[in-house]
Structures are given as structure tokens and as C-alpha cells.
Give the backbone structure.
Amino acid sequence: MKLRFLLVPLVCLLAGIASAADSQLLRLVMPYAKVVSVIDFDKVKTTPFGLFVLSQLPATDSSFKEFGAATGFDPLLDIHEVVMASPADMKAKAGLLLVRGRFDAQRIVSLFQAMGKATSETYRGVSIVSHGPDHGVTHALAFLDNSTAAAGDLASVRGAIDRRSSSAVMDAALADKIVRVSSNQDAWVFSIAPISAFAPAMPNKNVKGALQGDLIKAIEQSSGGIRFGKIIEISGELTARTNQDASSLADVVKFFVNMASVNSSGGGAGQTLLQNATVTAEANAVKLFVSIPESDVETLIKLSAGSARAPRI
């Protein structure tokens, strides 16, 4: 097996599988974080939607089986919660993934060390394996213990190790948002960075240009959350500079939601999702909310998968 089929995919996997957040994991987040997201994987995978997603995953992927046999690690069973944090600095390319789970840390680290293609170091008593640089970033993975993993760029991983015994505190505005919303969401993301700050990371020039528009520049903070159940509830909030900016932004969002509803190709399920969406402006905040039966979401996913497989004529 080549290292790039192990270390980098593992980092990506932990990001994508990306309730009240684990306070021990949040304590390891960099104090200058601008974006934080959490997924309560234990809770989500027991919901109807979680069970549906698990049923759609390929069971015969050879790389997945090979990795599991070599490490004794099954992400579908052994991951409990994931926290992702970033300072939202596109030039620094920094980010941190923190995972609460069940790991045979020594076995996984030993595998990478035995392959000889990863750089291995011990930092403050913790083994770190790294690979790169790749596009200027050295990817790193470390196990702080058999229930906590940290992955990301090397500096961020070292920082998480440092914070095990420090009293560093994240930005007060971000911490306040986490306290207010995390208790009743299964997955959520908060950003106290302007949305326009992410424009440089967009590969599509049209998207990049849209994010640099005057209206988008007016968005100073954003957040979103999902609560799973028989009815899936999706909420979001955009904080603008002024009340007028929020009112204008709400009008634009309503226009696009209505237009998408009229042109929906997802059948009844797709139209239900869009027609159930509510968009309101309250002071300088735009609030979005939509609820949809979980069965309708399954229908949308199946229709999307069918369209992707359909041959083009």
C-alpha cells in the first residue's frame, strides 16, 4: 500500500463524517479559530437518515478493507464525534480535525512508520506521522491517546498537543455561539469569518467573483445546523453589517429559493424541500429554516444518484 492511500484519505475521511459538543475536544481547538463544526456521529448513525446513509456505502471497497485489516480501525463503528476547526486564513492553509473514538494508536502509528514514506517524530511525548509538503502543506496525524486523534497541517496538530495542558480559550463570540446552539443540533457549523474571506479558495472563477460581491461582503458571520429524526430540520443564520443589508440579503435568498422551487427537477420531494423553506430578516440577521420528512430526503438522494449514473446521449 502506498502512503497516499492511507494517510491523506484518512484525514479526508475524518473531515467528511464532519448535540452538545465534546468539551474535551473543543479545549484542543486553536484559540484563534474562526470556523468550528461538530458532528455527533454516535447520534447521527442511529437515526433513520444515518442508517440510510450507511446502507448506501459500498461494502466491497478493497482499499477500505485493506486499511481496516492493517489497523483494526473501522470508521463506521469506531468514530464517536468529530470537531473541525480553522482560522479561516486561506494563505496559511491551516486546519484541525479532532476525533473522539476508539483507536489502536500504536498499531496505526507503527504501520506508517514501517512503510518508511512518512516522517515520524515525537512531540511532547506524542508520536506524530506526517507526509508532505503537498501544495505547501505538510499533513500530519497524531493520537493523543487511544480515544483522541488529531489531524491536519503539522503546526495545527502540534498546537493541539500543546493545548492539552494549557488554558487557551477560543474567541468569545465563537464560544458563545457554540453554547447557544450545540445542545439541540446533531451537526452544526459556525463561522465568525466573513464569507467573502473564502473566495480565494474557490476554484471556479464565477463562484469566486460572486463571493466578492458587495452583498456577500456584507455577511460578517454565518452558522448552520441539522437535527435528524423522522423530520429533518435544517436551520441557518447569516449576520450582516446592518439591518438594511440583512433585508436586502433576505430578499435575494427568497428570490433564489422561489426560482429553484419552480425549476426543481427533484419531483415532489425536491419541491417540498424548497417550498417548506422560510427566510426572514430580524434586525441584522437573516434566518433560514426548512423541515422535510426524512423519507423525502432519501428520495432526493436516490434520484440524484440515478441521474449521476444515467448515460448521457
Summary: The first strand starts at residue 35 and ends at 39. Residues 3-165 form one domain. Residues 1-20 have pLDDT under 50 and may be disordered.
